What does this fold into?
Amino acid sequence: MVIKQFVENHRVVQVWKTLADWMVGPGCKVRTEESGWDYIQPLDGDSTVTVGCILMTPTVDNSISSGRCEIVKSLSNLYQEMMISRLQTLENHTMDEIVQEKNAIGRERQGPVRK
It folds into this structure.
């Protein structure tokens, strides 16, 4: 997997590309090629918007002729669940970074703490 993150003025953009080989049932190999992007951008106030796009292309081993559609359907369902989990992890990580940056800026603006 290759992931690249771009930090811009008011948003963080992540793009990725990956290849994966899956064993779906006995002797059935499926290769998936995935590419995608997402960004997270603070809005006015305490709101944030997150947008993303994922393209997954499955290729079923040519030696498998029967049940090809069911194999792809099964893999697609599993893949969808995995992607939702992965995106949630990426969003959580990015949100943590943004919160830490905002907290650091807030501390800088407050100046030294007086006792």
In short: The chain has one domain: 2-110. The mean pLDDT is 82. The longest strand covers residues 29-42.
